[in-house]
Amino acid sequence: MNHETPTAPARKTQTESHAARPAPVIAISGLSKRYDSGFEALKHVDLEIQRGEIFALLGPNGAGKTTLISIICGLVNATGGSVVVDGHDSVTDYRAARAKIGLVPQELTSDAFETVWNTVRFSRGLFGKAPNDTHIEQVLKALSLWDKRKNQLITLSGGMKRRVLIAKALAHEPEILFLDEPTAGVDVELRRDMWEVVRELRNSGVTIILTTHYIEEAEEMADRIGVINGGEIVLVREKAALMRQLGSKQLTLHLQTPLASVPPALAHHPLTLAEDGNVLVYTYDASEAGDSGHVSISALINEIEAAGIRFKDLHTKQSSLEDIFVNLVRERS
User: Fold this and answer.
1) With bands split at pLDDT 50, 70 and 90, how would you rate the model's confidence at 180?
2) Which of 243, 259, 284 is the last residue of a domain?
3) Which residues are within 8 A (CB) of 116 and not within 5 positions of it... i.e. 6 or more apart?
4) For residue 288, with 0-12 CB atoms within 10 Å meaning exposed, 13-18 middle and 19 or more buried, which class applies?
5) Most CB atoms closer than 10 Å: which of 7, 8, 256, 287?
6) Same domain, 48 and 144
7) What is the pLDDT of residue 282?
């Protein structure tokens, strides 16, 4: 029997409270990369990736996306800072950190005359994993490659080769998967098939980090969005919050009679005329689109009608993630 005197529960300190939160599966702190030429590819990047999420890293060409991924995966040495992968330092505990990661590059560099089965099985051995043909079979079936297992890589379509890249990355059972431009150059139908594969991987517990030029790819799949530009992280935000906070909505009124100018009674509203005065446009923050936003729009329409303006049609349009991304990069360039 336990005879210890019961004590009142201690109040959690701020440090203990933070410690209670789940640790990120990847923690990047002060990461920098300067090449011998003097070019600074990364500038003190801080970033945390949460376990089990799909994180999309967006940025224009030369922004630092590939450099960042290459450092995390141990392919490039950082100039400063640190990367911790599931508790393992990427430099001092390289093997353990790298074993947690699967990397899907943009190009398939395996022997063109090797079979799908052999190239995927070989990838598992590179990480010192014991042969496990059952796992390889599961991966190939999940990626719809089982019927192609005896085919030489050279005989595969571009889409099937992309699937082989993912199979190779999953061969050693990683918990984290990096996808570098996974659907670049792939047709729309196959791109959507790949999205479904990525969702299934996330559902199985794999953390997904992808870089992409296709904004709709991030908008379709990602839980969080990170934007990198000029070697710096511009922002990291949950996708839904990003769309709400940085997006905008547009109310368009198609007028019965064209206007030469916005009436003075409406001058205090951000209204503009388009299409030779036949269209009246009102732009407002998406964050106003809640209940209070609808009230203000109703009030605006009442004011417009009170000013004697009649319209035959109206519609609203919300800015896409692409609009937000372009504006962010433009503001910081």
Assistant:
1) confident
2) 243
3) 140, 145, 148, 149, 150, 151, 153, 156, 164, 167
4) middle
5) 287
6) yes
7) 83
